[in-house]
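Progress report, Aim 2. The chain analyzed during this reporting quarter is listed below.
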Amino acid sequence: MNFGTDLAPALPYPRLRSPAMPPASLRRCVALLLSALAAWNGAAQKSSALDGPLHVAIDRQIAAALPKFKLKQTAERADDAEFLRRVTLDLTGVIPTADEVRAFTADKSPDKRTSLIDRLLASDEYARHLAVVFDVMLMERRPDEHVTSSEWRDYLAASFRQNKPLDALIREILLSDGLDPATRPAAKFVLDRDAVHDTLVRDIGRLFLGVDLQCAQCHDHPTVTDYRHLHYYGLHVFLAGTKLYRLPSGDKQMGLQEEVVREATFASVFDPDVQNKTGPRLMDAPAMDVPTFKVGEEYVEKPSSKTRAVPKFSLRKALAESLPRSETREFSRNMANRLWAHLMGRGLVQPLDMHHSANPPSHPELLALLADEFAAMKFDVRRFFREIALSDAYQRSSLAPPGVSPDAMPEESYALANFKGLGPEPLFASLIRATGNELTLERQLDEATKAATDDAARTKARAAERDKRVKEFTDLFGSSAGTPEGEFQASLPQALFLANAESIAVWLAPQHDNLTARLQKRSQPEQIAEEAYLSILSRSPTPEEVAAVQKHLSGKVGDVLAIEQLVWSLIASSEFRLNH
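Predicted structure tokens for the chain:
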């Protein structure tokens, strides 16, 4: 199958990128109402540090910085179709349906965007998508070692479904020892790195503090003066006693144990004769006091070949309690920056794991504000996303204003919407939805569970079958194991896959009232163009695009191959593969 790309729409963007006092009873009711309103996570809620909602403050900061980028204006507001597709992808990981596009663009309610954001954030699709986002962020597509990805993602999805604060989530991840089946999935972060201390130090530094200390392992960082040898070993002490432990269940499962460690001794490779010591510390914070115990009394129970080592004072627990909190400024800044990047296409600090004085934020005051407010929200991810999505900065068009070159509007200015490539999982889900094969997929997953004897086995079999199908996409469109998900980079193998893969051909074939089957039943090219563009690109076609479809289908309305060619040209387009 190689249809060519004559019909594939080219993105028109050069850059990818005071009455009487009421009765006391009434006063009490009013007081209760006001108290409830004050606790509501609505758009108009004010933080104690702000004069107005956070999304308004975001826009003030972006506007104030425009002269820094030699800009006098921003892009216009995105139209309804562009906004709907963008926010649905960002918050649920899949494009909207054609019916959703029709309903949203026809809705005349002035608050429909706010209502949409709230509905998406309350959906189960949001929880499942955030589970994927945080899995990719924290595990970086490492192969399963001790905890399966499905168990881990189920744990993450449950956490986002109940809107667990992010600091509590990270605390559980750092603290879980893998012994309790109920909390074992949280231990994947440490277990699937085999509790290798140097790996944990680097990844905890990068992912939770926004600092890559790898090059400070043997000496002060050679190019980043803010990253010191001391910082590496200050974090290393927290983890130096953590080791794998084979559980006595007989199933070869591993958990975590911890030997007693109080401090680290280290020397620079450039001055090996000078020995330095540090207790546990986070970057430039003072070293933590570690209690001492009499020899032989350091453990809850003296460890042996049959007994797991459990110290009376756990440094890993101390790390879990001291790192994910508002007092650890690096944590608040890093997490606020990463969540901002998820919605806005790039971080205020970029790369995300290189926070240091020589790489300042594009908007320092804004990042400080976001870090403060995220902490003041008690690390409520749903509420934080809501404020960003309500901002004008998020809702801007990706088209530059008339007469202004997109190249003159840097990505870091946020003067227009940045392009974001669809990751493998959103690309897979969006292709299934765009081609109308969600029912077909469900039937295939059901078929794979026929041998399951109970609900648990059925759920496991469905997850395994779906993962097998998604793996075709993660292998080709995802990052390599152990590396961050990179920026969008189109490649020849990806193009060949979209053009020739058997799975794509199956989705294009008419079946179970999918898109091709529906289009084949339409008699007017204009109707075919409208349905195809709404289903795949979440917008109506332009007159020029309708004319192109009419030309393509001239004398071939109802022809299966011609319809397949049309559908393929749209799903293979750059517009489909980018969120903009």
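Residues 421-579 form one domain. Confidence is low (pLDDT under 50) at residues 1-6, 10-48. These observations will guide the mutagenesis work planned for the next reporting period.
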